[in-house]
Amino acid sequence: MALAAAVSHAAPPAKPTAAEVLQASRADDWRPLDPGRTLLMQLGATGDAKGGEVLIELAPRFAPRHVANILTLVRERYFDGLAVLRVQDNYVAQWGDPEAESAEKARPLGQAERKLPAEFEVPLRGLPLSRLPDVDGWAQVTGWVDGFAVAADPRANRAWLAHCYGVVGAGRDNPADSSNGTELYAVIGHAPRGLDRNITVVGRVLSGIDLLSSLPRGGANMGFYDQPEQRLAIRSVRVLDELPPDQRPALQVLRTDTATWRALLEARRNRREPWFVHRSGHIGLCNATVPTRPAPKPAS
Amino acid sequence: MALAAAVSHAAPPAKPTAAEVLQASRADDWRPLDPGRTLLMQLGATGDAKGGEVLIELAPRFAPRHVANILTLVRERYFDGLAVLRVQDNYVAQWGDPEAESAEKARPLGQAERKLPAEFEVPLRGLPLSRLPDVDGWAQVTGWVDGFAVAADPRANRAWLAHCYGVVGAGRDNPADSSNGTELYAVIGHAPRGLDRNITVVGRVLSGIDLLSSLPRGGANMGFYDQPEQRLAIRSVRVLDELPPDQRPALQVLRTDTATWRALLEARRNRREPWFVHRSGHIGLCNATVPTRPAPKPAS
Asked: Tens of pLDDT along A3-44?
């Protein structure tokens, strides 16, 4: 313990590894979860070995109408008892109402909106973007806004959330404005950036994406399960502020507007661990995942 | 049937979708599997619901020594009865000998080489590279050689296989030349291109990657399973030329040196399907997966 404490207060090496950058991070490099825009989804019926918790942070800055509607749906318990309907390999896992197409059996939306505008983009100007200097290919400018990977077109003054691993979006039909947040998907494969600016991204998975990505792939077209018993049930979804504080996941997220984040990017761009013999000098927007950690226990 | 035949012979639209490009493809746009460098891995003990077939095409042009050694190991039945040891979310699934570290219990390598040179790169000059015009970020030049995604540095005259989804590599320890093909991994997440030029890529999964990507993630460090019973058994691995012709998977691979492949890239770069409202004008090297199809039945 004494040694660990000494190490954690030492100055970081001039060319630190990612682990060394995180070890040298300060308390204020990390932020808590925002209980008003973070969802806890419990998957699996009680006792189902495949079940577990998925924690999703919503992005009201980028999709305010969808996020508000999803929060309404969650508070109305719309998702409780629904299921994961589709798992397509190297693409997405999607959940919602299996009876959504049935006028009689579809779950009622209560106070939630049936129809919303598409929220594919926001103005770039005014966004507190932590720029990624590396070339992206899909967009002229990329970076992060509060942990979310963002791509942008400065000439058009447009910015949008990039479809990186773990991103959560609102499924839609052919009309651009046909999503309302009742049908959600998470990216479980190589970033399908061709979806960018084509669909409303509403958030990202902070923990538990492995539960979705390891589900059996569906045998029907687009990975839909062809047998209802293949679907994994959603036991419940709650906004964190609906839970007593001691039942909320105690997770912190590394702030992406910090020198620590920039140092972490540099450590990943040029890996100093002895295993590496070649340094890329590059990091992809969707390779640069944002760390989380258990919240330190308060001093008692 | 008559309509389908008529459609398949019609000239493709001027701006076809990916489906239309493939529908208009010609028989010689497709190549058969090479039985001497394609592996069929059977996963799961008999009756194990998680089991199934993984088909792997090896890349002797890029890693001749490793591929030769893997073929020797397979023909000696080295892999039969070994297991998937590690599944790390958004990264790799890895298989090999659980007892590899034990001098007494490790499976003998027979006629296979214990030690091989690293095969991270080959000369670019002379490679029949189908160039991808789009910017990559990780490398100055990218494209495909016979279905494999390749990145290259023209000034240094070096080329290497890119770590896209489904790529198979040879695990190693810290020394660059510490892989010999006994421990293999497949990429099951967002392309970890930072591994490029750091490890020997030996092939890629042509079908069945979903069996590996949907396995439960391991709970130990780096996704190793912490309990032996979590490991999925490898029932057998065979070179296709060891199997009677009628027991070999009848799959064809789209040739990447064809106008059809170039048209497919263009269709994916600018999606014409009615669902899309924004066309990226770009495709990522690792987003452009190479299609396979069941071999057409010979006329009887």
From this structure: 333 444 456 568 999 999 999 999 999 999 999 999 999 999
Cβ–Cβ gap A136/B136 under 8 Å: no
Q: Give the predicted TM-score (pTM) of the model.
A: 0.95
Has residue B176 been placed in a domain? yes
Cα torsion A132, A136, A140, A146: sign = negative
Q: Please write down the HEC assignment for all residues of chain A.
A: CHHHHHHHHCCCCCCCCHHHHHHCCCHHHEEECCCCCEEEEEECCCCCCCCEEEEEEECCCCCHHHHHHHHHHHHCCCCCCCEEEEEECCCEEEEECCCCCCCCCCCCCCCCCCCCCCCCCEECCCCCCEECCCCCCCCCEEEEECCEEEEEECCCCEEEECCCCCEEEECCCCCCCCCCCCCEEEECCCCCHHHCCCCEEEEEEEECHHHHHCCCCCCCHHHECCCHHHCEEEEEEEEHHHCCHHHCCCEEEECCCCHHHHHHHHHHHCCCCCCCCCCCCCCCCCCCCCCEEECCCCCC
Q: Could you read off the pLDDT of A217-271 as tens digits, one per residue?
A: 999 999 999 999 999 999 999 999 999 999 999 999 999 999 999 999 999 999 9
Spatial distance between the Cα atoms of A214 and A219, rounded to a whole number of angstroms: 15
A79 within domain boundaries: yes
A282 part of contact set with chain B, CB < 8 Å: yes
Q: B226 pLDDT exceeds 50?
A: yes
Q: Which of B140, B193, B214, B229 to mutate to test the interface with A (most CBs of A within 10 A)?
A: B214
Interface mutation target, options B277, B285, B286, B290, chain A, most CBs of A under 10 Å: B277
What is the pLDDT at residue A6?
A: 41
**Would an 8 Å CB–CB cutoff place B271 in contact with chain A?**
yes
Contact B89 A192 (CB under 8 A): no
Whether A191 has its CB under 8 Å from any CB of chain B: the answer is yes
Contact B86/A at CB under 8 A: no
ipTM: 0.94
Domain count, chain B: 1
For the domain that residue A52 is a member of, what is the CATH number? Answer: 2.40.100.10
- Asked if residue B29 is part of any domain, the answer here is no
Q: Is A84 part of any domain?
A: yes
Range of the domain at A125: 16-27+34-289
Q: Which of B191, B210, B271 sits opposite A194 (nearest CB)?
A: B271
Compute the nearest-CA separation of A269 from chain B (Å): 8
How does residue B45 score in pLDDT terms, banded at 50, 70 and 90?
confident
Tell me the nearest-neighbour CA distance from B283 into chain A, angstroms. Answer: 8
Whether residue A216 and residue B216 make contact (CB cut-off 8 A), yes or no, is no
| Phi/psi at A6 (5° precision) | -65, -45
Looking at beta carbons, which residues of chain A come within 8 Å of B190? 164-165, 189-191, 284, 286-287
